[in-house]
């Protein structure tokens, strides 16, 4: 049983562990030597990626509220192309061709989430014609 004042300490320790899990793949490159270690390294990268995707979706929701025309109708395809090109410079092994569909999926997921949080579908969405 935790003593008085230790609940906050336990929560702070949990928060610190989560921060380390999320940040470690960004600051330390692992070179695993076996399958389990490689899968563990992927799990740590996936934890960081999930946190970053959630943060991106929150920021994209803010953008949707601030844009004069939001949602699928307000997409800026030139900006999206520049984004993919910039990411390809940071991830040259993937390049623009492989990153393009990934970022399209990320952007569309963020737009769908913003619609849900706003309480309605965007009529400019593809396929809703």
Q: For the report, how would you describe the main beta sheet?
A: none
* H/E series: HHHH
For the CA atoms, what is the radius of gyration? 19 Å
Query: Overall mean pLDDT score?
Result: 86
- Measured as a percent range, the helix fraction is over 70%
Q: Determine the N-to-C terminus distance.
A: 59 Å
Structural class: mainly alpha
| Backbone shape | flat
Low-confidence parts lasting 5 or more residues at pLDDT below 50? 123-129
Number of helices: 4
Q: What's the count of strands?
A: 0
Strand content: under 5%
List the helices and strands and how they pair.
Blueprint: H1 6-27, H2 35-66, H3 77-90, H4 95-118
Helix pairs in contact: 1-2, 2-4, 3-4
How would you portray this structure in words?
With 129 residues, this protein is mainly alpha-helical. The chain is built from four helices and no strands. The longest helix is centred in the middle third of the chain and has 32 residues. The chain is flat, with a radius of gyration of 19 Å. The C terminus is likely disordered.
Name its key features.
single chain, 129 residues, mainly alpha, 0% strand, disordered C terminus
Short structural summary:
The protein is an all-alpha fold and about 130 residues long. The protein has four helices and no strands.
